[in-house]
């Protein structure tokens, strides 16, 4: 199945509210960021602190068009923390960091507009 990430993409099939609740989306703060060596597409690897319950998790994202690693440290992001880990080259990504494609297809991170305690679940 092909999924389009453009503004004109058709709506996905309807799901139940319980299906939505099964996706654990939390706020975390990026504590480390560096280029992901060996990735097929330019990517940044990050360590994200999701608070005491979830802890720190690793993530990689193809976000180099808008972000440099040094600008990400200290920034809060949204991530799905209950997907299984995924191997990206030699790096094991534990979290899906969320974002949206801009007009050119480059990803902009989903972030709160004010500080939120790490680990807070989306409601």
Written account of the structure:
The protein is mainly beta. The chain has a domain at 24-109: Beta Barrel (OB fold (Dihydrolipoamide Acetyltransferase, E2P)), CATH 2.40.50. It is built from three helices and nine strands. The strands form three sheets. A five-stranded antiparallel sheet has the order 3-2-1-4-7. A two-stranded antiparallel ribbon has the order 5-6. A hairpin with a 2-residue loop joins strand 5 and strand 6 (91-93). 26% of the residues are buried.
Please name the defining characteristics of this protein.
5-stranded antiparallel β-sheet, 3 helices, 11% helix, OB fold (Dihydrolipoamide Acetyltransferase, E2P), mainly beta, 123 residues, 34% strand
Over the alpha carbons, how many angstroms does the gyration radius reach? 15 Å
Going by helix content, strand content and strand pairing, the class is mainly beta
Summed up, the helix count is 3
Q: Give the full name of the CATH homologous superfamily of the domain at 24-109.
A: Nucleic acid-binding proteins
Question: What's the SSE blueprint?
Answer:
Layout: H1 17-21, E1 25-35, E2 44-49, H2 51-54, E3 56-61, H3 69-72, E4 76-80, E5 86-88, E6 91-93, E7 96-97, E8 99-101, E9 107-109
Antiparallel strand pairs: 1-2, 1-4, 2-3, 4-7, 5-6, 8-9
């Amino acid at each position: 199945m092909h999924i389009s990430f453009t503004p004109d993409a058709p709506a996905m099939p309807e799901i139940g509210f319980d299906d939505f609740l099964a996706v654990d989306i939390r706020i975390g703060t990026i504590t480390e960021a560096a280029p992901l060596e060996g990735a097929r597409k330019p990517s940044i690897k990050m360590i994200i602190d999701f608070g005491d319950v979830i802890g720190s998790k690793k993530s990689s994202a193809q976000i180099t068009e808008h972000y440099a690693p040094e600008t990400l440290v200290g920034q809060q992001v949204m991530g799905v923390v209950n997907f299984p880990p995924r191997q990206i080259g030699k790096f094991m990504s534990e979290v899906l960091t969320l974002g949206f494609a801009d007009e050119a297809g480059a990803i902009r991170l989903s972030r709160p507009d004010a500080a939120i305690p790490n680990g807070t679940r989306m409601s």
